[in-house]
Design goal:
The protein is of the alpha/beta class. The protein contains eight helices and 14 strands. The strands form three sheets. It has a seven-stranded mixed β-sheet with strand order 10-9-8-11-12-13-14, with helices on both faces. Strands 1-4-5-6-7 form a five-stranded parallel β-sheet, sandwiched between helices. The chain is globular, with a radius of gyration of 20 Å.
Amino acid sequence: MSSSVKIFAGSVTDDLGSRIARAYGQELGNVKHSKFSDGEFQVSYEESIRGNDVFIIQSTMPPADNLMELLLMIDAAKRASARKIIAVIPYFGFARQDRKDKPRVAIGAKLVANLLTAAGVDRVMTMDLHADQIQGFFEVPVDHLFASSIFLPYIETLDVRNVIMAAPDTGGTKRANAYAKYLNVDLAICYKQRKVANEIENMTVIGDVEGRDVILVDDIIDTAGTLTTASDMMMDKGAKSVRAICTHAVLSGPAYDRLEKSAIKELIVTDTIPIQRESSKIKVLTVADLFADVIHSAINYQSISKYFIVS
């Protein structure tokens, strides 16, 4: 293990950062977060990082302060003469703004990529981007990891015999189909129509789920409207049980209440975003070991292809 590696974490991902650092084999570096009375904040490294490879762990979900904190940490590392600066972004915020889907809107994901590059990042590590093409928004290397390397072993431990994978919407068909192919099971698809964001107008199920143990697959669960509506429809169509796996547990607004009232037996998520409320239905799997292994591979110029089980 290289002695020139130092790992730091932003305030919102401090717990995950500590677990990643321990899994890598060292303690989390000392960084100080100061705040002015008007809400402006400042970050400073409380140890020398001159000539070091600095890994900065921070998810960038709202509020925008989380992204700004990451940018300040990158800038501070650059000005402190770090050899390389690697942004480890378990959850890449603004990823849902990956294209112009109507006139006069911003492409937020591209803007964030530009900001990270301008701040001085040399490499980015992230997980399950909402759209794969976001990797092309960067002019620096991007290690895009898949949570399937964590979810698949867990699925194989479940006591279910008649599994069918399902996509909660047509946009997730590719992801659900990849899981179905790997597990050699059938696929179902939910077709939904929206009038506005976070509101479903109607939904139908394509595929036979009667008597099956359904596992819905998605990258993000936000208000949980899509997943809970899909799970209830699956049960109405005769499904035996419904589980869901989602990498990023945004869980905003009415999400927790919807989840509790839904037919979902278990929601399996990762800790890329801290869980705000405990729930007997939520199972959290950590990404710490995965990111620690990839950091080790990156430092030693080793392939990380083995972590791309299902894309």
